[in-house]
Design goal:
By secondary structure, the chain is mainly alpha-helical. It has two helices and no strands. The structure holds protoporphyrin IX containing FE.
Length: 53
């Protein structure tokens, strides 16, 4: 997680792996969740790890 800043983590969750140069296997949430919900997801995932970037 340390290499993901907040904006890129948000974009990864919104648009999926391919949009961020990773595997297209990871889908994005843009059709299923609002921007605010995706930002909230990114913030929640941060709470699961101790190290902050
Ligand atoms: C809220 C749900 C999810 C979160 C928070 C999440 C988060 C992440 C993050 C942060 C990475 C990058 C890891 C790294 O830096 O190496 C990642 C990679 C990946 N995710 Fe997800 N993910 C989610 C859901 C999913 C789902 C549903 C799938 C597949 C069905 C998936 C498949 C993958 C794959 C295959 C990669 C590796 C991509 C690569 O290294 O090329 N993810 N995910």
């Amino acid at each position: 997680m340390a290499r993901w800043n907040d904006e890129d983590l948000y974009l990864l969750l919104r648009d999926g792996g391919k949009a961020m140069g990773l595997s297209a296997t990871m889908p994005g949430w843009s059709r299923l969740a609002t921007d605010q919900e995706i930002r909230d997801m990114a913030a929640f995932v941060r709470t699961l790890v101790a190290e902050q970037p």
